[in-house]
Amino acid sequence: MRTGNIAFKILVFLSLSMPVMAQEIPPPGPGMAMKQLNVGAFVEQVDIDKDGSMSKDEWKTARLVDLPFTFCDASKDGILSAQEMADCRLPEAMDTDEDGVLLVDEMIEFDKRMASAPKRKYEATSPYVGGGETGMDFIRVLDEDGDGKVTHAEWEKNKNATVYKDKHWPEYNKNMDEYITVDEAPQKP
Fold first, then answer.
1. Taking the alpha carbons of 141, 147, 149, 151 in that order, is the dihedral positive or negative?
2. Would you give the distance in Å from CA 124 to the centre of its chain?
3. pLDDT of 170 higher than 60
4. Does residue 120 carry a pLDDT above 90?
5. Max Cα separation, the chain?
6. Which pLDDT score is estimated for 89?
7. Cβ-proximal residues to 114 (8 Å cutoff; 6+ apart), any chain
8. What is the pTM of this model?
9. What are phi and psi of 46, to 5 degrees?
10. Distance in angstroms between the alpha carbons of the first and the last residue of the chain
11. Taking CA 166 as the corner, what is the angle to CA 162 and CA 171, rounded to the nearest 5 degrees?
């Protein structure tokens, strides 16, 4: 019974996490399915110290955006192992030459295409929970580094201490970028 419950929770988590990975990806169409890619060459390109894993600094040095790192870091230890990267399902559109092998330049190009895609219009309709913080106060409660926005890691780490503990990242990160900003924060009705 417990194993079934854990499996169910994993499925729910994955179904809620996939929109996070989507960033500004248009509705599913050709090339937008998630896929496991051969990432050996990618890891070799990013892993500067050749220890078999990628640190956040190595990732940034390679000019890569944070979201795939956060999404693929299954252990949430801030180090992306070669195995975690290999197990991670990424948009098949990242593999621009369709050879099944992901390279750093392909991920960078994919991110540029997504950043230049027309932005979806949205209304900040994040659910308000009675008694909960709203607007900038919502951001202050969850924002650990004081940059005025909430990352997915900050959300997961701090939401359980709030009335928003039963809510999920996609309910607040309406534009599917890397942060919850004040315009996405809940407002009193």
1. negative
2. 19
3. yes
4. no
5. 53
6. 83
7. 23, 24, 25
8. 0.51
9. -85, -35
10. 40
11. 100
122-189 — its CATH code?
1.10.238
DSSP per-residue letters across 95-164: -TT-SSB--HHHHHHHHHHHHHSPPPP----PPP-TT---HHHHHHHH-SS-SSSEEHHHHHHHGGGSTT
Amino acid at 87: D
pLDDT of residue 10: 53
**Per-domain residue ranges of the chain:** 2-116, 122-189
Residue 15 pLDDT greater than 90, yes or no: no
Cβ-based neighbours of 38, under 8 Å, separated by 6 or more: 100, 101, 102
Kindly tell me the sign of the dihedral angle through the C-alpha atoms of 163, 166, 169, 173. Answer: negative
Where is 181: in which H helix or E strand?
none
What are the structure tokens assigned to 167, written together?
Answer: 């809510």
Average pLDDT, the chain: 80
- Cα 24 to Cα 37, 42, 44, 69, 182: the distances in Å are 21, 23, 28, 17, 19
